Amino acid sequence: MKQDRNFDDLAHKFAASIYGTAKGEIRQTVVWQDIELILQELAVGSQQELPHQEPALRELKAKPTFSVLDAGGGLAQLSQKIAALGHNVNLCDLSSEMLSLAKEDITDNNLLERYRFIHSPVQYVSDHLNQPVDLVLFHAVMEWLAEPIPALTSLCEQVKPGGIISVMFYNYNGLLFKNLICGNLKHIEQGMPHRKRFKLQPQQGIKPELVYQCLQQAGFEILGKTGVRTFHDYMQNHDMGHFSFDEIVAMEQKLCRQEPFLSLGRYIHVYAKKNS
Hints:
About 40% of the residues lie in helices and about 20% in strands. The chain is of the alpha/beta class. It starts with 10 loop residues before the first helix and ends with a strand.
């Protein structure tokens, strides 16, 4: 029986192998562009909620503070950048070891006062929240869950009207394409089962249409989609003598929101706004 993956046993390796790599840096760079757009959208929405306020109060609200839930947030790499802008973050994770590592890093970055730590499966995070939040981050978690779509549905309920959910998931189509170009036809015919010897490989690919449908059925309007690593992982030659890493990142940024590259990303980031 498939179970949710707890990274207590691999927290340190996960940190080095996922975040401390070129793949991780591309992911952070591309998704952060979307996060900046999300924060702008939330800021505009907060201004519209105060149309009759005195100019002085509107000026005070020019840089509002948002409540954020980083669900399954691991080391909180991305939410720390949000917290550094003055927003408050609830960091939730199933792994106590990941939370401990995150707290060390957050403390080193002088952001501890902006964080609240929740040791819980994401499916039960509502037990730890007093009210819905402005922004939910649900990044690279669904592919590790036994039942990913119900988990996404439950997190949609934690977003306040007018708020935004940011979802990044391991793309089934990208996984399929990777296996095709590697000639793993038998593996594809077997349904691409998870190979347990690759402990840091996600348990499954998530079909994009299921994510989009879930968001829309939960009362959200999709604002944007971005392919994460649309070509980097497919490159046969990573000889940096022919190009720089900055050139790779620049090309990823150029292609990541264009089809067909978007839909072939190893991950897809989609963000959506809850109807008021």
